[in-house]
Sequence to fold (395 residues):
Amino acid sequence: MSESRICCPCLYRCIFEYETPRSVIIRSRKVGSFNRFIQLAILGYIIGWVLVWQKGYQEFDSIISSVTTKVKGIAVTNDSHLGFRVWDVADYVIPPQEELSFFVMTNLIMTRDQIQAQCPEVPDDSSKCTSDSNCTAGFSDVHSSGIQTGRCVNFNETVRTCEVQAWCPLEINGVNDSEPALLKAADNFTVLIKNNIRYPKFNFNKRNILPNISSTYLKTCIFNRQTDPYCPIFRLGDIVHEAGEDFQKMAVEGGVMGIQIRWDCDLDKSDSKCVPTYTFRRLDNKNPNNNVAPGYNFRFAKYYKTPDGVESRTLIKAYGIRFDVMVFGRAGKFNIIPTLINVGSGLALLGLATVLCDCIVLYCMKKRNFYREKKYKFVDDFDLVANSQTTYGTP
Fold:
């Protein structure tokens, strides 16, 4: 019975009571100063961060971009294996065009005049042998150069290996990373990057060859961050150097470089203010504690027919630097809808000052009981009060 007496009034109050705001002016230097400080901080956030820094008065659109590249440069080499040779763009840019990237060969292993024949496998733990019983006819794996014939033959005067049916002679030994790259002059090659962008929401188009750039200027300019930051022609050595890398070391085994073009455009300003910003960084792994399979390389072949009709090829293992062009950015323009949304949500935060001040006044100050009595006032139902006075008389 006692529990029901307790629950009934609580249930009654829960159903039939409601709260309404009451304005109480508290004259306190501490609380008043704290209240104004919070309000100023919120206003500073709305104006400084939301509207000015984040441009909350604008609507934004993401970028649509296309990129084409053109590499230029001549290199001359003269070594014991290849002899005197002049290299041009058709030799070292492989393939001639890629989407959003280009590859420049800086080092290579060339194996000439390969034909389909039998020859000794390159020595390793699985190919060395002492007799034909160590070789299995028809055997191959992913590391083999060809199909084993079942014979054990001399690879050189001291080593015997299993014979394979393959493109012979097999590829010569790997690149020597202690020597300079064959095309060490590639650091002076240049690349013209043509980047066209579009913001479809605002019907805005532009390209990185700016309107003030003439054909004469384009033939002589080279990108320089201090003196010529908008020239679209880049020296490969400068790209690698700005990324904090050594071009000559990177050229030996290859690598991957990123060319980042950022377009952040405020379309409330003049179109001439919308210009690209270029940054460079190395993208492939360069961890001295994990140097397994470093660099960047691939193989390709050029095929020929001998006068007697035998097919032959020249195998090239190309080492080099792949340059990936990445375009980022967004454009903004004034729009009343995001402005009202951001200003409205920011002004709603001003209520936070009242909440924080109430917490201090009601729970932290010494006179919190006094302030609580002033803030909250309990009023009974007028009809109940009038009925009780009629029944029992006014005291």
